[in-house]
Amino acid sequence: MELHSGLPYWIVKNKLFNHFNPLKTNIQTKVAIIGSGITGSLVAHELCKQNIACVIIDKRSIGLGSSAASTSQLQYEIDEPLTNLIELVGEDHAVRAYKDCLNSIADIREVLKETKADGSYKQIPTFLLASNQRGVRLLEKEYEVRKKNDLPIQFLNKQQLAKTLGVDNEAALYNDSSAQIDCYQCATGILNHYLKNKKLEIYSHTLIENYRKQKNGYTLTTTEGYTVTCEYVVVAAGFEAGDFLPQKVMTLLSTYAIISQPVDPKLLWHKRALIWETKNPYLYMRTTDDNRIIVGGEDIPYSAPDIRDDKLRTKSKALERKFRKMFPEIPFVTEMSWCGTFSATADGLPFIGAWPRHPKMLFTLGYGGNGITFSMIGAQVISNIVRGIHDPRLEVYGFKRLKNKKDC
Q: Domain named FAD dependent oxidoreductase: which ranges (predicted)?
């Protein structure tokens, strides 16, 4: 499936990772990771750090799946507000998820330090804007529940928001615990570190056609007929994980993004914060190191790549109009635009861990708009599973929360 189209900024900004290495022989390893994006790279990091033998397999060039189209924001908030998530999964699990995401922002920074991968990591604040009076009421409740659970949060009224950010919304939630990265640069930088240190093999342009469960693990077979024999399979392929899942666990959405020409940095808003809103689907924006502005949103249900792509021009224009309405004093000229497909779950949480009764087929599927923090959590959980360490986070993110689970 075509995961994105148009011209994602990160592919222009970065030199493409030069690694062409299709699998041309039968191999054995402890762990086979399927997917070379940010999720697969973080899993590889956690395993290589523990000296656990692993390989990465990807049907594409390295990092050119969904990670290349990500707008690369790191927030502890997820798509479901905490007040809603409590109703869906209970207060203990909901608060745990928010705190896990908060911790993962710092954990990603440490991974980049350990691997000397730049990743353009920058800690910045977040504004969550009320889109209407219903949004104000949501933010008031959200502020109270986050404050009660010791999450970093401030409530800004209309006057405070106008003074701080210069927008006309009625209210906002603010925190200074967010960050932004270059997702493609992060993924390829982490992988390159372990390639250079000869701790990891990466097989690009290699498609797994089928798999067979064995007593001590799995045998994967490529379209060329070569085999990968492993104890564990880790599926880190996002919504393309469907070939390994016995039932559908997510819905597909199409999303759109535009990036401006460079603007005068003096015109950019307070601390170049991440900005998003309570409306669903929400508008979001960030800046880049070279003083560009990324605006994303206009999400619609996914039906087919050509239908998604046909809407790119009109969706780009809509994003431009929304930005100019919020910041009329900032000149915005679109230089690149792109669209992609992503997944969402019923409760806004990822799926991490083994499918029931298949303990060595592991998944780390960071579905949702905040998938990078979920990827960090998933990598840590997967590492613990492989090492035989119980991880209580499985109670929050595991497949047991699904109703009517089908067996493979």
A: 30-383
pLDDT over 80 at 66, yes or no: yes
Q: Return all residues near 395 (Cβ < 8 A) that are at least 6 apart.
A: 93
Q: Quick count: other Cβ atoms within 10 Å of Cβ 365?
A: 29
- What stretches of 241-357 adopt beta strand conformation (E)? 251-260, 274-277, 284-287, 293-301, 334-344, 351-355
Residue type, position 33, single letter: I
Q: What are the pLDDT digits (tens) for 356-400?
A: 889 999 999 987 777 899 999 999 999 999 999 999 999 999 999
What one-letter code names the amino acid at 12?
A: V
- The CA–CA distances, whole Å, from 112 to 37, 105, 123 equal 15, 11, 13
pLDDT at 180: 97
Strand 171-180, strand 73-74: pairing: antiparallel
DSSP code, position 198: T
Each residue of 257-272: pLDDT tens digit? 999 999 999 999 999 9
CB burial of residue 352 (10 Å; 0-12, 13-18, 19+): buried
Residue pointed to by tokens 């270059």: 182
SS3 of 11, please? Answer: helix
Question: Domains in the chain and their CATH numbers?
Answer: 4-13+20-70+184-250+348-401 (3.50.50.60), 122-180+251-344 (3.30.9.10)
- Indicate the SS3 state at residue 214: strand
Structure tokens at 307: 């239908």
Residue 303 has pLDDT above 80, yes or no: no
| Residue 85 CA: distances (Å) to CA of 74, 98, 348 | 19, 10, 8
Q: Is residue 314 within 8 Å of 306, Cβ to Cβ?
A: no
d(CA 332, CA 324): 7
What tokens does 338 get?
């792109």
What are phi and psi for residue 164, nearest 5 degrees?
A: -85, -50
Q: Identify residue 212 by its one-letter amino acid code.
A: R
Neighbours of 328 (CB within 10 A): 9
Tell me the pTM: 0.94
Closest CA to 200 of 65, 19, 64, 346: 19
